[in-house]
Amino acid sequence: VLNQGQVDSLKALSKQVIHLLELRKKKMELEAAFARIEKKNQELEQFAFTVAHDLKSPLNVIIGLSDLFTQKYKDKFDADGLKIMETIKGSTSKLAEFIAELLEYSRLEKVLGEEKIEVRTSQLQDYLTSLFVAEKSFRLSFNTTVESLLVNKMALEQSLVNLITNALKYNNLIGHGVFI
Q1: Nearest-5° angle of CA 168, CA 173, CA 176?
Q2: Local confidence band at 36 (pLDDT 50, 70, 90 cut-offs)
């Protein structure tokens, strides 16, 4: 024989058990959904790599044939013809670059999930400077009072390398400096 307090406690306990079982079921459903999403992401990534490879090959052929065609028949072209060939080559190169950047972005998603570590700014500067050592008339300077950062090292390095490379490529900074 149970008293009313014990009956109430058992009812509360049964509600908790039901609630916990429902939560466990939801957790299992979420884990299964997550596993399906992960599988789809892997399939999508593989598809992206395959498509990128399949697109880059013909683009490289177009670029190469444009060069060959221009070299072989350059005396047959007028100024407009040469300009058209350069436009074909330039547009094809831009498309190939765009595809490479899309692939880099898809890889970056994986990198962003990695663990954050302490990165000393002096070591980061040394690393970046060593990458651009071949650029003789280029100077890289860091202007910071921050001694270290808690970051995803690979993501930070990739981002800074891309920024510096684009600064050099699109702003004709050879002979100047890039200040970070």
Answers
A1: 135
A2: very high
